[in-house]
Amino acid sequence: MDRATPRPEGGGAKRLDDGSVPSWRAELDSTVKLALPLAGSFIGSVAISTTDVVMMGWLGAEALAAGSLGYNLLFPLYLLGLGVILAVAPMTASALGAGDERAVRRTFRQGLWVGFILAIPFGVVLWQGRPILLAFGQEERLVLRTEEYLRVVLWGLAPIFWYTALRSFLTALSRVRPILVITLVAVGVNALGNYALMFGHFGFPRLELVGAAISTVIVDVFLFLGLLVYVLRRKDFARFGLFERFWRADWPRFLALIKLGIPIGMGIIAEAFFFSAAIFLMGWISTEAVAAATIVLQCMAVAFMAPLGIGHATMVRVGYHAGAGHPAAVKQAAQAGLSVAFACVVVTAGLFIGVGEFLVGLFLSPADRAGGVVVGMAVALMASAALFQVFDGLQLVAVSVLRGLHATRTAMWLAFISFWGVGFTAAYTLGFPLGFGRQGVWWGLGIGLACAAVLAILVAWRAMAGMAAGRRYR
Q1: Torsion angle, alpha carbons of 93, 97, 100, 106, to 10
Q2: What are phi and psi of 162, to 5 degrees?
């Protein structure tokens, strides 16, 4: 890597041309320094979506239901696009490890191309949201309100995908503090925009759900422009020429990004909808079971942000060392990521056990807490979720190792086998034919996560051994 080239911070700056391996402490330090701001930015993203849900609820039950319908149509499209563009991070990290500046530029530029191209068909789907939702038997009056929301929010797709490309590029270079700062500011921008546009404050008209959609687009554009300004102002990024000849097609790199990214997106969708399926099964049991499971899963989602940050950090570290051609350093990066993730999930597991009832109470009114039915169910599920958190964190980091090695198809199939072939089958079988009810469904969830953790760790270690022997996973 040329001395003038921007270098990864936090221990990743030195290319290991002599075959050496960074010390365990240095690798651990690099992982933690990269993971903490990423985890904070992911928590900020959760705060943005949570703010939307809370403020839609202030408009009334019908507005909340309409907004929820729109979000659930948008969400899988967003996840797929996010996963595809996320491939920019491991591809860029590998290019940095190999000292290939041209590949860095090509990868980033095609990440922006992919974001724009995906936004077009995804936007068409959202524009046609009304017939799609009606085909699924949704109430027409509700769907009409959802349609208004979707036809505005779709304009934020391209900016949020471009933001993801910029975020992936910066993550690969370990320049993640700006991501955290801009995301936290965006939380306030979103809340202020919702307050002004949804409810008609500060001289703005009261636009309700349309106002929420406009605020979302504003936030998407803000996130993109915030990172764009940072990148353009950094003189040490100028060497890459990120926006030079932006209009020039690079189909080999474009197709490589799609090939690597689609399995990432599909794997993310497989896991996300596995948890949604658990709620669906709980709905066959009782309303209280749905409420209890929803509360616990929301707590798990917040706690999941820390392992998510660690996973992204591990993916970049592994990709960097793989690009430099150092199998021993790849293995050490994987071990560091798994160690940090394990320590993190043990802490959150302790919180789930120690203050589970308090956490559950945050989601319920005083009357509901006094009734105790949902509380009792949720506290019991929370105790089990403490163990699930350990499996979930470990499987995420192991999958991130595979993504860093560009073995994204392998990671995708592991997700479908573990979550749907094993987990969903176990949840349904334990919950209904075997008669264990909500606890059976919940333990099926845990079985799926445990299976994912064991398989992902075994396959990741085999992939690293294969790299040392000159073989590659796909």
Answers
A1: -10
A2: -65, -40
The 10s digit of each residue's pLDDT in 87-129 is 999 999 999 988 888 899 999 999 999 999 999 999 999 999 8
How far apart, in whole angstroms, are the C-alpha atoms of residue 231 and residue 33?
Answer: 20
Per-residue pLDDT tens for 14-45?
A: 444 444 567 778 888 989 999 999 999 999 99
Map tokens 């009782």 to a residue.
286
For residue 358, the model assigns a pLDDT of 86
How far is C-alpha 65 from the geometric centre of its chain's CA atoms?
24
Distance CA 210, CA 415 (A): 36
**Helix and strand element counts for the chain (H, E):** 18, 0
pLDDT at 6 over 70: no
Give me the torsion for CA of 344, 345, 349, 352, rounded to 10°: 80
Token pair, residue 391, equals 């499996």
pTM of the model: 0.88
Contacts of 77 (CB under 8 A, 6+ apart): 122, 125, 126, 157
Q: The tokens of 196 are what?
A: 């002004």
In 3D space, the residue among 82, 163, 75, 85 whose CA is nearest the CA of residue 126 turns out to be 75
Write down the H helix ranges in 154-250: 157-172, 177-199, 208-233
How confident is the model at residue 260, as a pLDDT? 94
Yes or no: say if 404 and 93 are a contact pair by the CB < 8 Å rule: yes
pLDDT at 12: 41
One-letter amino acid for residue 103 of the chain: A
For the chain, give the percent of residues with pLDDT over 90: 59
- For residue 54, the one-letter residue type is V
Residue 53 above 90 pLDDT? no
Picking from 268, 223, 360, 242, the residue whose alpha carbon sits closest to that of residue 77 is: 268
Query: What pLDDT sits at residue 16?
Result: 42
Distance from C-alpha of 11 to C-alpha of 25, rounded to nearest angstrom = 10
Cβ within 8 Å of residue 144, ≥6 positions away: 130
DSSP string, 23-45: -HHHHHHHHHHHHHHHHHHHHHH
